[in-house]
């Protein structure tokens, strides 16, 4: 018996639809963001080497907490998170870029969320 010739390898055995073939290789092109916020930009953008994802991008979230804006950056690959509070929404990104670039940024470990409900105070102790 002869061996079958392998067809072109497909990622994870999945067939990429024609509409998405160009989107697979699409990369963010934001030269202005890269120049203005270089530290934050490198933290948020995924890193590729020869088309292979070597570091996923970070996640940025901004929420109101009291009278301040809470800015949080999650780094899934490093399993770290960084929070900062800011008084003005207009300067949040530049302040965060400066904070991450300084040696004063405080990083804490990310924890997996537990899907079990928290115990109630009146729950029986077993």
How are the elements arranged and paired?
Blueprint: H1 21-24, H2 31-36, H3 38-44, E1 47-49, E2 52-55, E3 59-65, E4 68-75, E5 80-86, H4 92-101, E6 107-109
Antiparallel strand pairs: 1-2, 3-4, 4-5, 5-6
Helix pairs in contact: 3-4
Q: Biggest sheet, strands in spatial order?
A: 3-4-5-6
Apparent shape = globular
In this structure, how is the largest beta sheet organized?
4 strands, antiparallel
Query: What's the gyration radius in Å?
Result: 22 Å
Averaged pLDDT = 81
Task: State the secondary-structure class.
Answer: alpha+beta
Number of helices: 4
Order of helices and strands: HHHEEEEEHE
Q: Distance N terminus to C terminus?
A: 64 Å
Q: Tell me the β content.
A: 25-35%
Report what the structure shows.
This protein has a domain at 29-109. It is globular. The mean pLDDT is 81. The chain has a four-stranded antiparallel beta sheet, covered by helices on one side. The protein has a two-stranded antiparallel sheet with strand order 1-2. It has 126 residues and is α+β, with helices and mostly antiparallel strands. The protein is built from four helices and six strands; from the N terminus they run αααβββββαβ. The protein has helices at 21-24, 31-36, 38-44, 92-101, and strands at 47-49, 52-55, 59-65, 68-75, 80-86, 107-109. Helix 3 crosses helix 4 (92-101).
